[in-house]
Amino acid sequence: MELKLPLIAAIDVGSNYIQMIIAELNPEGQVKILEDVIQPTSIGRDTFTMGRIDRKTIQETCEILKGFSQLLKDYRVKDYHAVGTSGIREAENREYVLELIRLKTKIEVEIINSAQERFFMYRALRSRLPGPLLAEQTTLIVNLASGGVETSIYEKGALIFTEYLKIGSLRLRETLADLEVKSINFPAVMEEFIDSKTSLLKRFLQDIKFTNFIMIGNEVRTVANLCGEDQRIEVEDFTKLYEKLLIMTDDQITRTYGLVKNQADTFLPTVITLHCFLKLTHARQIYVPDISLKNGLIHDLADGLIESPQSKDSLNDMISSVWYIANRFGADRRHAEQVEKLALSLFDQTGKIHGLGHQERLYLQVAAILHAVGYFISFTDHQEHAYRIIRHRNIMGLSARDLILIANIVRYNTQESPSHQDENYEGLMDRDKIVVSKLAALLKLAEALDVSHKNKVEKVEVHRKGEQLIFTMYSWQDPFLEEWTFQNCSSLFEEVTGMQVIVKRKGLSL
Predict the structure, then answer these.
(1) How far apart are alpha carbons 418 and 440 in whole angstroms?
(2) Would you call 473 helix, strand, or coil by DSSP?
(3) Other Cβ atoms closer than 10 A to 176
(4) pLDDT of residue 178
(5) Which residues span the membrane (predicted)?
(6) Is residue 317 within 8 Å of residue 119, measured between CB atoms?
(7) From the centroid of its chain, how far is CA 136?
(8) Which of 201, 294, 326, 431 is most buried, by CB atoms within 10 Å?
(9) Domains 129-290 and 307-506 share a fold
């Protein structure tokens, strides 16, 4: 008899639409959608024009989510993930909005940043794309949402570049509203505005030869449907649509293409943005997969129950984006890779001692890769510079809290130990202080094992003997400096684990 897994659901409280899907998952990890609902909202319009979400919009949002909550009860869904994007994220009254939603609908909405949004979108993308499209070719991906545009480049399966710009379709409309009533050629003004915001990006992209061009987002799907296509848009067909729209009024566009208000508000900005990015490529087709943020959320929930090849690909995307940052800040890649390898080995071998899980392992991995980025700014207080660099990065799949923890782990990758005198540490929750201290202790040990930057230590084996942990280094060369540094850096590890550290070394025979 086939094992039935619990039903799962994903809710996207977006800037222009509120959406939910309910799905069932089979033991092979395949997702079957049972419900797919969507309702228009004015959240983004309020935020992008007034900076706050209006009381009436909050009431309407709560009513929509009450209906979603009832569907969750009807299907007996217990595992769900509800997120809010730029429309709520940038609202001055977001805390009040989230609390009213929680009280009136019993739905807990998590605010995600653009990097987390990107992670979920690309998780959905991985589930729909033919494997070779990302694995073998150079691909430009543009995720056009209501609040912003995320541009990414994949090369031979690795994410090598990503950038987020606040020029989403609805935001453009609201930002340029005053110019729209004054200009006789508003589409040209809008295109010029987009070009001005993407000028630096264009300099980076212009010398890259893209094999594929992928556009994702709800608004882009509307364009694809009007071009008579499902998963692809022929550039010739798109160009005809673009040229036709340039001489039409909003009313004419709405009537001609049968658009509802929310679609009409974002349709022209979507087409013009798409045209601006299309000019950067020599693509003959635009690939438009039928995915959205909610698809990524549902697949991520599924990954928590059954690991799939796509989930590993998504993790690789995240780590690729971290390496992009490390390279951008001139990190010694060979050293960083060695520290990463040794840190993860120590983490895995001491699991029963530190009691941390998969998420904390990821924090350590990211910290190991980025531990030396502060040297790009200064050799003096480089750990402080590294803290600020990481704290204000936009790393795929990581929340603001995640970045704070990773930044603190790197911050204490020196002779200095975490202290309540440090406001960065004191401001953490007690549980997070423990996580930072344990991972900083492991990172100290890992970097000590490559203090010479010569990759002397091939591996480390850890064995427990009573209240002692014996670390045996295996090396082709004399690791005297590494052994001495390791012993001097072990005090924090001893303090947070209650174990005595003993260091031994063995040579590797040919």
Answers:
(1) 9
(2) strand
(3) 16
(4) 86
(5) none
(6) yes
(7) 23
(8) 294
(9) no
Q: Which two tokens stand for residue 183?
A: 């200009």
**How far lies 170's CA from each of 110, 177, 215, 265, 290, in Å?**
22, 11, 17, 7, 20
Side-chain half-sphere CA neighbours of 288 within 13 A? 24
In tens, the pLDDT along 428-438 reads 888 999 999 99
SS3 content of the chain, % helix, strand, coil (to 5): 55, 20, 30
Question: Which residues touch 111 (CB under 8 Å, ≥6 apart)?
Answer: 83, 84, 88, 89, 94, 98
Tell me the C-alpha distance between 141 and 161, whole Å.
10
pLDDT at 510: 38
Provide the token pair at 493. 């590890």
**DSSP type of residue 52:** S
| Weakly modelled stretches of the chain, pLDDT under 70 | 1-4, 129-136, 229, 307-313, 415, 508-510
* Residue 419: Cβ-neighbour burial (10 angstroms; 0-12, 13-18, 19+): exposed
Q: Which residues on neighbouring strands pair with residue 501, listed in sequence order?
A: 469
The encoded tokens of residue 381 equal 């207080």
CA within 13 Å, CB half, 245: 27
Pairwise CA distance, residues 102 & 503, whole Å: 52
DSSP string, 141-176: EEEE-SS-EEEEEEETTEEEEEEEES--HHHHHHHT
AA identity, residue 11: I
User: pTM of whole model > 0.70?
Assistant: yes
Sequence spans of domains, the chain: 7-112, 129-290, 307-506
Q: What are the C-alpha distances in Å from 92 to residues 51, 96, 299, 456, 477?
A: 6, 9, 31, 53, 59
Q: What's domain 129-290's architecture?
A: 2-Layer Sandwich (3.30)
Range list of H helices, 392-479: 400-411, 423-426, 430-448
Q: For the domain 7-112, what is the CATH code?
A: 3.30.420.40
Strand, helix or coil at 322? helix
Residue 107, by phi and psi: left (phi above 0), alpha (psi -120 to 50) or beta?
A: beta
What pLDDT shows up at residue 38? 93
